[in-house]
Specification:
42% of the residues are buried. The chain folds into 2 domains: 112 residues, Rossmann fold, CATH 3.40.50; 162 residues, Tumour Suppressor Smad4 (Sandwich), CATH 2.60.200. Helix 1 packs parallel to helix 5 and helix 6 packs across helix 7. The chain is an alpha+beta fold and 299 residues long. The protein has a 15-stranded mixed sheet that branches. The model has no long low-confidence stretch (mean pLDDT 85). The chain contains 8 helices and 15 strands.
Length: 299
């Protein structure tokens, strides 16, 4: 099959690296004799025009040079049409790319794209908003909101905002309904994951898979701050999926479930992030897996 690419690059981020990325994309794609164009990402996240463009120009692959937020917007826009999504990781966390084992080096990421190994991966809806890999309520969402306000991005800034929020973090009340079983908890945060990545190779749901048709739910319950550090590190190393057990629920610091859908009541309006980007929170969330939501170019 003849392939035709469109690359999306953020026109604002990192001018020096941006120029290198454009030059590398152009020269390497020409070597492959693949027709292509390079477009700017849309600051408003509006890619509704893409479906018609893909159909009329017979585009086979949409390549995102960016992070999880941009992948989210474009994957959502092209749901239901036969097109591959590729990633050249250049965001702050790159959770989806790392989960898919896509290398960060531009030339190596391009080689993955040229190889054309496309695999269907899942996504999910949270109150009818699309997520390609991870959303969270509570502490990590507050970090995402504060991080988005910073002029300087990158890992160092994210660590700084995480540390600042850690010391003032508080637990939030939630009610979870998973497979008809309802329970209340106070939790520092809840992660709903289709990927094992928070980003930057930080793994919160170690059993998660991009294409198993399941959501991984991690609930970090109320505990001392020092205990939370130890417990989360233990979760990163070898967190085990466990079925809900009413008699034992409140004895555990972290709960790790797998399910296709769940409901969460959020009476104190804990903050929300979707794929690392701040989002408007709500008092109630309906969350459901979308199996084979899009096809991703992977090693």
């Amino acid at each position: 099959m003849n392939r035709r690419f469109i690359y999306f690059i953020n026109p604002i981020s990192g001018t020096g690296k941006k120029t290198f990325v454009r030059e590398c994309i152009s020269s390497e794609t020409k070597k492959q004799n693949i027709p292509f164009e390079i477009a700017d990402t849309n600051a408003a996240g509006d890619y509704a025009y893409l479906k018609n463009k893909i159909a009329s120009e017979k585009i086979t692959d949409v390549i995102v040079c960016g992070g999880d937020g941009t992948v989210n917007q474009i994957a959502n826009a092209v749901q239901g049409i036969p097109v591959n999504i590729g990633i050249i990781p250049s965001g702050s966390g790159n959770g989806l790319a790392f989960a898919a084992k896509i290398p960060k080096a531009v030339n190596k990421a391009l080689q993955v794209i040229f190889n054309g190994n496309a695999i269907a991966v899942d996504g999910f809806y949270i109150n009818k908003k699309f997520s390609c890999m991870l959303c969270g309520l509570g502490f990590d969402a507050q970090v995402a909101h504060d991080f988005a306000q910073q002029q300087k991005r990158g890992l160092a800034t994210y660590v700084q905002q995480s540390a600042k929020n850690f010391f003032r973090a508080k637990p939030y009340p939630f009610e979870l309904n998973i497979d008809g079983k309802i329970f209340d908890t106070e939790a520092f945060f809840i992660s709903i994951a289709n990927s094992n990545q928070f980003g930057n190779n930080f793994t919160i749901a170690p059993r998660a898979s991009l294409h198993d048709g399941l959501l991984d739910i991690v609930v970090v319950n109320k505990m001392s701050k020092m205990r939370m550090i130890w417990t989360v590190l233990k979760q990163i190393r070898n967190g085990q999926v466990r079925m809900y057990e009413d008699k034992k629920y409140h004895r555990n610091d972290i709960h790790y479930f797998q399910t296709k859908k769940l409901n969460i009541k959020n009476p104190s309006l804990a903050p929300l992030h979707i794929d690392g980007d701040p989002a408007n929170t709500d008092i109630h969330f309906e969350i459901e897996i979308i199996e084979q939501a899009f096809t991703l170019l992977m090693p």
